[in-house]
Each structure stands twice: as structure tokens, then as C-alpha cells.
Amino acid sequence: MSVTRSGEPGRAAAAEPDPRRWWGLVIIALAQLMVVLDATIVNIALPSAQRDLGMSDGDRQWVITAYTLAFGGLLLLGGRVADLVGRKRTFIIGLIGFAGASALGGAATTSGMLFGARALQGVFAALLAPSALSLLTTTFTDPKERGKAFGIYGALAGSGSAIGFIAGGLLTEYLNWRWCLYVNIPIAIVAVVGAFALLHDRPGHEGVRLDVPGAVLGCGGLVAIVYGFSEAEPRGWTDPVVLGLFAAGAVLLTAFVWWQNRAPSPLLPLHIIKDRDRAGCFLTMGLAVIGMFGMFLFLTYYLQVILGYSPVKTGMAFLPLTVAIIIGSTQISARLLNHLPPRALMVPGMILAAGGMVFFTQLTVNSDYTSEMLPGLLLMGLGMGLTFMPVFATATAGVAPQDAGVTSATVNTAQQVGGSIGTALLNTIATTTSVTYIAARLHDPANAARKALVTREGIVHGYTVAIWWAVAVMLLAGLVAGLMVTARAPRHGAAADGAPVPESVA
Questions:
Q1: Which runs of consecutive H residues, i.e. helices, occur in 236-309?
Q2: Are 477 and 347 a contacting pair, CB within 8 Å?
Q3: Does residue 358 have a pLDDT over 80?
Q4: What pLDDT was estimated at residue 185?
Q5: Contact 82, 93 (CB under 8 A)
Q6: What pTM did the predictor assign?
Q7: What would the DSSP string read from start to end of 142-156?
Q8: At what angle are helices 374-395 and 319-326 packed, to 10 degrees?
Q9: Which of 44, 257, 383, 402 reaches 20 to 30 Å from 356, CA-CA?
């Protein structure tokens, strides 16, 4: 199959590049970092917020889930809004709304107010994220420069979660949990001022119309499935509510696909996901993030609950991972993507990441960070850095200008939905495995006196079993990339919007 070339390549190639484009990249990257790290920055602060607002153990998950549900469920609509009204305008609206929602969450006096603010953050993040990626695509028209720009962007997309843990630890320990939300306000102000001064965009496309039935069906289906995975941990996989949510999600998404074939202005033009390379990138991204978010969850609890690390020390423990992701994206992927097929980076990247996670399957209640965790974090980071950058670049290459926003949104949707599913799925596996392990051993009277130790051993056993599943998911992501992403190395020319055109083999 081949990628359709759209637009006017000659004119795109001939256009003079914006002399302030690298400063524009700083603004785009700053906004994207804010969106990505907000998925994890409150994790370390969650115990403090729970105590302060009197949340129950059953309700505390909504601080995380409200954000990912709104973000993942509305991203496709956000991409279409960006195409309709213009990416710069949507980008600025998203920044202002995100800052306002963050202020509301930081000032929350009840748990419901915090949950609502987090959901509102997700709504504006769904506007902001696809606009940021679309602006990046249209700002950098030279293939080599695009490689460097996407390397930086991919590094932030991959390391933002780890940066969130570090920032969350510092803010929680030295200020309080509310600053994990307030910190977005100055970042957003700087980004808004920079966007007005530095970013340029063509106006919205008059031919684009919002597909309201598609938005209801698609967003409803995604929300039902992600909500189902979130509820699987407290309720169990066979609970009627969980099964009903999965069934409703499947029905809604089936109806969504049916409607997209008939809608005059579809929310997600099916030719975008029918393209073999893009479909492979979307699936690779979703699977990779399932394993990555699971690893973040378990290592955070392992470091704090089992090894007794402080919030700051826990956050700093993830710093080598962040550095490795940045090196993998900017120093390896960005330099090689114009010379190698994308899958030549993505497949080794997933194998490296899976190999790094194997280290975490060997953890015990007394593991040493330097010898038993650090090698895994470094391998995991390099693997993710190798993978994220070619995924973003290949998925958005060669799209028609009017489809740039929705294509960008689909990449981000795969990332958010994968993260939500990974957190719920792997956490359920870990919890049920731990309960079985502990119950079996405490039946033995000889273990009654060492109940605390058996409980800790059971918790770590649950983590390691779930991480083995994450290893399998990572390897599956590598297999998908190897079989589906058949694009060759980009030619040294520019397509519409300056995107390098990957040439697919039959």
C-alpha cells in the first residue's frame, strides 16, 4: 500500500521557514509537557490530598481517572475542533482553560470539586494536545529539522510522566499537594504569551464540519471502555457493571465505525486508520504505553511502600529513566530516522524496553536500587525513546492539511487510552495475585507471627507477576511494529504541510 500525497508539495518545500520556529517549538513543547505530566504529577500527592479532603479508598482513583477519561474520550473531537477553527486559536483556548481548571482543582474544598476540576483539565487537554502536535507538523517543513523537532517532542511525550513524578514529589514534600495543580498556571501563562508572539497557523478549514453523532458514539464508546477497566479493580472482571460497560463500549464503537462510513463530515475519516503504517503506529503506541504506565504505578508504590522512600526520593529515582528517554529520542532516533525505516527503530526499542522490565520482575522486599532497578530503568528509557519519536513522525507524515488535527488526536488517543487501560488492567492482576499469595501463606500457622513480612512479600509478588504481563505486551508492540509499519526511510523532500512522505512497500 502507499501513502496518499495531498496538498502541494512544491509550494510547501519552497516556503521560507519561520526564523523563530525553534522558539515556537519551546512553546509547543512546554504546553505538551504540561499536559503529559499532569497525568502523573498528582500520583505522589494523592495520599496527602486524600487525607485533606476526606476521600474514601474507593473514590480516590477518580483523581487520576477523571483526567484520563475526559482526555482520552474527547481527543478525537478536540482534533476536529482544531481543524475547524484553526490550531493556534484552539491551542490558546486549551491553555487558558487548562490553567483555569488547574486553579479550580488547587482550591478544591471537597473531593467532588477536585474530581470535577480534573475532568475539566482533561477536556481542555483534549483541545490542547492535538493542536500542539498539528502546529509542530506545520511549523517544521524541512525533513531533517522535523526529525530533530519530533525527537524533542517524542522525548517529552515519553518522559513527561516521569517528570511528573519528580515534580509531584518536590511540590508535595516542600509545599503541599495543591501546588501540583497550581504549578500549571504560570506555565500556561508563559505558553499563551509565547503562542501569541511566536506561533503562526493558517486559518481553519471552512469545509470541516463537526460530526456530532460521531462525537457522541466515539467518545461514549471510549469512555465506557476506559471506565470499565477502571471499575474492574474494585468490582472484579465478572461484575455485571464491568461487563455492561465493556458491552456498551463495544456497541458504541461498532456504531461509530458504521456511522463514519456514512457521515458527510466524519469525525475520524476511516482512510486515516486504514493506512497500514498509521494503524501500526497507533496500535504500537497504545500497547507500549500499557506496559509503561503499569511500570510507573508499581515502581512508585514499591519505592514508597516497600522501600520507604520519601516523595522526593521516589521522584528522583525516575530521573535516569527520563534522561534515557531524552537520549533515545533526540540523540539516536532523531539522527537515524531519515536513514532507516521507522520499524528498524521501533522494534529494537520495544525489545530493549521489554528487556528493561524483566529486571523489575526480579524485585524482592529487599532489592537494591542501584544494582537491581537502575539497569532496568535505563534500558526501558532508551527503548521508549527509540519508539516514541518514529511513532509520532510516521503517524503524522503525509496527511492532508484538513486531516492533520484529527490524525494528531488519534496518536494522543492511543497514548491516553493505553495508559488508562494499562493502569487498570495491570493493577487488577497485581491486586488479585497478591491477595491469593497472602491468603495461601497465612493459612499456615508458622507464618502467623510474620504476617507483616508475608504481606509485603505478597504485594511485591503481585507487582512482579503484573510486570511479566507488561513484558508480554511490550513484545507484542514490537511484533505489531515489525509486521504493520512497512514505511521506508523518508525521502529528502517535503509533502503537504512539510511532512516527510514515508513510502510503503506492498
A1: 240-260, 270-274, 276-301
A2: no
A3: yes
A4: 93
A5: no
A6: 0.76
A7: SHHHHHHHHHHHHHH
A8: 40
A9: 44
